[in-house]
User: Fold Malonate decarboxylase acyl carrier protein from Hafnia psychrotolerans.
Amino acid sequence: MERFEFTYPAQTSLTDRAHAGVVGSGDLEALYEPKSGDTLHVTVTTSVDGSHTLWQRFFDRLSQLRELPAGQLDVNDFGATPGVARLRIEQVFEEAGHAN
Assistant:
């Protein structure tokens, strides 16, 4: 298991906590908690050794494609493909933005 931390500028805020996905073979779990400020702090825990550069590139690209919300994003990965990772992260942001 490896753990990485990244910080990105945040351009928006979301209203509530959210959870998407499960930790299981080929999937990942994304947990989001809103916080005041202007950064998104990302923590990735993964079963895939040696994937720091891939995760960094993934979040660098994501930050170019969408506005990131301020807060804490925890990603618990169990070998998810980039497509699954993007889906789960978009799902958790969507859920947090529409929470009541």
